[in-house]
Specification:
Layout (H helix, E strand, L loop, with lengths): L2 H10 L13 E5 L10 E2 L5 E4 L7 E3 L12 H4 L11 H8 L7 E6 L3 H9 L1 H10 L1 H26 L3 E5 L12 H21 L3 E5 L8 H7 L3 E3 L7 H8 L4 E6 L1 H5 L6 H15 L5 E5 L7 H17 L19
Parallel strand pairs: 1-5, 5-6, 6-7, 7-8, 8-9, 9-10
Antiparallel strand pairs: 2-3, 3-4
Length: about 325
Amino acid sequence: MNARENLLRVIRHDSPRWVPNGMESVINIGSPVVERPRQAGSDAFGVEWSLEEKAEGGTYPTPGGHPVTDISNWRAEVSMPDPDELDWTPVRASAEAVDRDECLLQGFVEMGLFERSYLLLGMEAALVAFLSQPEAMWDLVAAIADYKIELIERFDDAVGMDMLWYGDDWGTQSDLFLPPRVWRRIIGPHTKRIYDCLKKRDIIINQHSCGRIESVFADMIDMGADIWNPCQPCNDLAALKKKFGGRITFCGGIDSQFVLARPGVTTREVRAEVRARIDALAEGGGYIAAPSHGVPYEKEIIDAMNDEISTYGRRIYAGNGQGTSRALPLNNAG
């Protein structure tokens, strides 16, 4: 069994042989749309971005650089990119180089409905508008969803995606940015439209959403998400696995904030954290081990994490095929 087939078994909850270390055998390809420029300047929607070279991520939305100054006039102030006017030739060439027997091809579409709405209006104005002018926000979010669907269709026509990484950060460390009722009224229905487009094309949905999103987790699954990343531990991951484990794959979960990136953390603590996440999330498949956030880590720490995923992530399934955890001693290393 190669890594591609094992990953598909994980996603299908179909007796995988090992817990994957991240998205093994997955090749990521982005679209030609500039959702977030790498240098200071404008994105494809006219949002201004600034650059801090030493900061994680580099670019960030320039304060005051949002194009919409009045939500009631957004149609005159927003220009959606046209996917048919983009040059898809480099994207198509990248896809043609992928060995589809060995690898899955994952498209990358970031800045989902909530994120793009606040980038267009500015965060404070967007949050106020979601509460005070929900009809106008519904119309704006619907238009963004129309664009996303058109982009996904054009993207899939060009490369034939197996999977889509779709990003939209809905949560803070403690809760959603929006009240759940507002999310369900505006964000949820149009996200479902995007999911429906993907389902019709048999594309695996890998939903990225940082923060604590427990209050709409069931909604996300009911709408059709196949994978959720990065599974930040501000959510009760073990409880979510127990309740929804057979219906979604968890990708991430290894605590970045309080373990991997904590000053003074030991490799033994890292190994214990890896085991705890595998024990809680891997039973029956449906778990891809990875950090809960993509930030730089010390080499010694990431090496210990990788080694423990490789060893314990294979031993956990040995002999039963169901992912039932058994007590195994920690490696002596670290």
